[in-house]
Amino acid sequence: MEPLLKSTDLKKIYFRKQALDGLNLEIQKGKITGLLGPNGSGKTTFLKIAAGILKQSSGEILINGNKPGTKTKAEVSYLPDKDYLFKWMRIQDAVNFFKDMYTDFDEDKAQDMLKFMNLDPDSKVKTLSKGMSEKLYLSLVLSRKAKLYILDEPLGGVDPTTREKILDAILENYTENSSVLITTHLVSDIERLFDDVAFISEGKIVLFGNAEELRNERKMSIDELYREVFK
Amino acid sequence: MFKLVKYDLQGYFKDFLIMISAIVILNVALFTRVNVWSSGSILALNMAIGFAAEIIVVIWNVKLFSRDIREDTSILLFTLPKSGKNILMNKIVTALIQMVIVQFVIFIFTAMWIQIFKVVQGGIIDIKIPFFQFIKSVSPKFALFTFLAILVIYITFLLTIYISITLSKVAIKNRKFGNLGSFAIFVILCITQGKIDELFSEIFPQTFKLNILNLDIPSVNPNNIVANGIDINIASIFVSVAVLILLFYATAYLLENKLDL
What is the complex's ipTM, to 2 decimals? Predict the structure, then answer.
C-alpha cells in the first residue's frame, strides 16, 4: 500500500547545525504514529517540513504523493506547539476562521468538541490558560476531515485530567481514512494510542516499528523502550 | 479569494474606531477656533491631523504583513491552503482598504475646511474658485490617471516594504538584525527603482500632455500646470507597472517557496 507520508533521505541544515540528517520515514494510511525523541532530536523540524512551513535542505518528502505546498496544506491538519491564533480573537472567531479557510472543516463537530472540552465560544483566546488553549487548538485541528493530522506535543503543559480528555478526543475523532503523527515527551501517557512508533535521534530514525510488536519483542512498554534507546 | 481580508480588518477594528474618532473629535475641536485663529492655522492643523493619521495607517499596513512573517501567527497564515500570491493579494487589499477609509475621512474634513474658508488660492493650486467647483472642473482623464498613479505608487511602496521584510526573514534568522536588514534592503530597492526609472526615462524621453482641468480658469501664473497641463513620460509609466508586477511575483514566490517559519 502506498504510504500517506514518505520521507526519503531528508536533511535540514540551520546555518551550522544539522537538524535532520537523512531522515527516512513512512506513515501508512489509518495509522497513529508516535515520533519520539529527546529535545533537539529534530522532531519539530520534521513536522514543520511536513506541514509545509519549513523547507528541507535536501531529500524528499511526499504527502499523498505531493510535495508540501498549497495542495498538501488542504490535506494536513497541523497542531503546532505555539499559540498561533490572533490575540484579538474569541473562540467563536477562531471557529469561523477555520470554517472560512478550510473546506474540510466541520463546524458541528467543532461545536461538539468545544462542549466536550468545556470551552465557552465567547471566551477570548488571549485569556485562556495553557491547558484551555491546548484544548481549543486540538478542537480546531481535529474538527477538520484531514488526511493527515500532525500533532506537535499535544499534551505539553496540561494537567493529567486534561491529558485524558485530549487523548480521548484524538481517539474519538480519528478515522481509518486518516493518519496521525504525534510527537511527545509524555510517552507513558500517550503510548496506548500508537500503532507505530519511530524513535528519532540527531535527525535520524534510529528505531521504527509496530508498537505492539516492539512491546512483545523487547518485553517492555514503549515508555521503557524510550528510556532504553535514549539512556 | 479575499476571506483573509475580513479577519485582518477585524483585527484592526478597535484601532480603526479610535483613529476615526480622534480625527472627528480633533476637527470638531478646531470648529471652536473659527474666527479665533486664522484660517491658515486651522487648515494647517487639519492637515497635520491628516498627516499623523496617514503615518499611523502606513505603520498598520507594514505591521499587517510583518506580524504574520515574524510572529507566531505566521503559522496560522502559512499553514492555510493558500498560495503566496493569494496571501499577498489579501494583505495588499487589506492595506488599501485601511488607507482608503482613513483618507476618505481626512478628505471630507479637509474639503470642508477649504470650502468654508474658500481658500483655494496660493500654494500649488493657484486658482481662485471654491473647492467643490474646482473638483467639478477636473478632467476625468486626469482624475483617472491620478487615481491609478497613486494606486500604483502606493502598492509599489507596500510591495517594496513587504519584499524587504520577506527577504530579510529568508536570509537573516535573528529578529533584531532582521529588522535592520529589512530597512537596508528597502533603501537599496528604493534607490534601484529610482535609477531604473531614470535610466528608461532618459533612453525613451517621449511624453504625452495631460490636461488637468476642463474649464478655462484664470491663473495668476501663466506657467501654472493647472492651466497648461503636465507632461507624462511614457517609459516611466511602463517601468512603474513592470516594477509593481515584478515585486508582486517575487514576493509571492519567496512567501511560497523560501520562507522558513
Answer: 0.89
